[in-house]
Design goal:
By secondary structure, this protein is an alpha+beta fold. The protein has eleven helices and 21 strands. A hairpin with a 2-residue loop joins strand 20 and strand 21. Helix 3 runs parallel beside helix 4. The termini are far apart. The relative contact order is 0.11.
């Protein structure tokens, strides 16, 4: 029986998607829940799974084609898979000649199997089939996994992120590897061609995500009065604190203690003191947010994305570090969901990991503030009338001058500086 695989409902404000890559071709066997095709929108990559076992009898779109919700992507022939199974069974593989075939165990209903597997995992929350299989194979409890699916559903990507965290914890002495891309939706790289003037050149179309990034950055420049203020921070207190507790922290939580968690905590404290930086403009109204959803800019294979740490004010340093690694893994694998990158009241961007000394970050609309971190450099500083060498970092705050005054912006940045130079203040709330 032919079964149609359709384009799923697209995220709000997304009209269409582009076929980014097929994992299967016509004639290939496919298992239920196995990823069939990747769809690229201007926000995220959507993985479309097979909805049944079978053989792909028809693929209706090629890579690069534009599709809309409910269009038929492919057709799966269930009977073809059944015929293969029947042929394998009739061959009597593994059964001696003349011996009676082994009795077939009664097939367990899928619902009952899912319930039993959930019990084995110690969970009463929904788990996708692919995620359940990985969890059972790797002895992972549901309570260990950071959930990102709708309605609290554990997804395959959540389990893969946890496995990566666990692997890092098991190889403490090994330097962390840079995120690798899967390569399944790599941008086309055509060979150089000779242009009209005889010069060598090549033309590569923008990805949907890159085009969306360009559009949003241009909108930010046109629709906000962006100014940037700078300051510098002595990172020695934070570096000393990390050096003292990094081994115990990693042993306890299975994740390294990085700088970003300190900056998130310091930013939240500063946002509490200067609520305009956590606000946004809606028409003629200023919307002050009573929560602190901090976006962390990370680089993915298709461009910069900003996953959100929701209610960052309630997160511990360990939870922040774990969430950042979780999102960085999903970004490198192109598996961020629309929920991961929607919203946010303030953003932090760390150009220092690429060696940036100073920059002016651009707002992420409709937010009114973004903090730019930069590389740490040892510099000669005057302390108490004496010259000493200290690890210094330049900080940049870009802000919307329509609702944030220069005084507030400067004091906001000074607050972050004070928190980082005296980390105990973040614990004491002073």
């Amino acid at each position: 029986m032919p079964v149609e695989v359709k384009v799923p409902a697209l995220p709000e404000s997304v009209a269409d998607a582009v076929i980014a890559g097929w994992h299967k071709q016509t004639g290939d066997a496919v298992a239920q829940d196995e990823t069939l095709v990747d769809l690229e929108t201007d926000k995220v990559i959507l993985e479309v799974p097979a909805i049944t076992n079978g053989v792909i009898s028809e693929i209706r779109f090629n890579v690069g084609d534009t599709v809309t919700a409910d269009q038929v992507l492919a057709v799966i022939d269930e009977t073809a898979e059944a015929a293969v199974t029947e042929e394998t069974d009739s061959a009597g593989a593994g059964v001696e000649s003349g011996a009676a075939p082994a009795p077939q165990a009664e097939e367990k209903p899928a619902v009952a199997e899912a319930v039993q597997d959930n019990d084995a995992l110690g969970s009463d929350i929904p788990i996708s089939p692919a995620a359940r299989k990985l969890m059972l194979e790797n002895n992972i409890a549901a309570s260990d996994v950071t959930v990102s699916g709708k309605g609290g559903r554990i997804l395959k990507e959540d389990v893969l992120a946890y496995l990566k965290l666990r692997q890092q914890a098991e190889t403490v002495e090994k330097a962390p590897a840079k995120p690798e891309t899967t390569g399944r939706i790599a941008e086309k790289k055509p060979a150089f061609e000779t242009g009209s003037e005889g010069r060598i050149e090549k033309r590569v179309p923008m990805t949907r995500l890159r085009a969306r990034i360009a559009e949003r950055l241009l909108d930010a420049q046109h629709n906000a009065a962006i100014l940037t203020t700078f300051n510098e921070v002595n990172m020695k207190p934070v570096m000393d604190l990390r050096a003292t507790y990094k081994d115990r922290f990693e042993k306890e939580y299975g994740v390294k203690l990085g700088f970003m968690s300190f900056f998130v905590k310091a930013s939240v404290e500063a946002l509490k003191k200067f609520p305009a930086v956590n606000a946004s403009i809606d028409g003629n109204d200023i919307v002050y947010h009573g929560y602190y959803d901090v976006g962390i800019a990370v680089s993915g294979p298709s461009g910069l994305v900003v996953p959100i740490l929701r209610n960052a004010e309630d997160m511990t340093l360990a939870q922040i570090e774990q969430a950042i690694i979780h999102y960085a893994t999903k970004a490198s694998d192109n598996t961020l969901s629309i929920e991961d990158i929607t919203g946010g009241t303030f953003t932090i961007s760390n150009g220092g990991i690429f060696g940036s000394m100073m920059s002016t970050p651009i707002l992420n609309p409709p937010q009114s503030g973004i903090l730019g971190m930069h590389t740490i450099k040892e510099r000669a500083m005057v302390v108490g009338g004496e010259i000493t060498i200290l690890p210094m970092m330049y900080l940049a705050l870009s802000y919307d001058h329509r609702i944030i005054d220069g005084r507030e912006a400067v004091q906001f940045l000074v607050t972050i500086k004070d928190m980082l130079e005296e980390p105990s203040r973040m614990l004491l709330g002073v």
